[in-house]
Amino acid sequence: FDLVSSSTPLLDPALRRLIRSRIFRCSTCYLPKAPGVTPLMGDLPASRFSTVRAFRSIALDYAGFFTIRESLRRNAPRSKGYLVVIVCLSTKAVHLDFAPDLSTPAFLRALDRFVARRGLCNEIFSDNGTNLVGASRHLKEVFELLASSQDVINDHLASQAIAWNFSPPAG
């Protein structure tokens, strides 16, 4: 079927219907125009949908390094610094904090500042960074030490225990 040699104009409705029906019957012409399949979403944690106060369940990660000047002088010494990014899972509010290095004590100080400002959180989601895994172990040891010494502290910490969830590495 050659449209160029045909004397019928292309605006003919019957010819238009004929061409469309041939295209829809042809699998090589029709299949590439098929809509894509939308992938199914994975199961999200229940804390993403709960309506509680902000920063009850958080996700955290490090950003950086950033070069930081120690003062406003021209030749002030520069040092590395890292940004601790804490995101509330239910409201998507963001809390930014500073850590001078990637060590566990520096992260624990940043976490203490976060808790002092925003309140205690119940769940923390993070990647498997060595400083974060070390901080999780350290907090568990502190909780166990305090829980074994006094019943009052044990009851208090049991009601405010923090669950720490690590995401598997990508790839």
TrEMBL record:
Any one GO molecular-function label of the UniProt entry: nucleic acid binding
The organism's place on the tree of life at top rank: Eukaryota
Protein name listed in UniProt: Protein white
Organism: Lygus hesperus
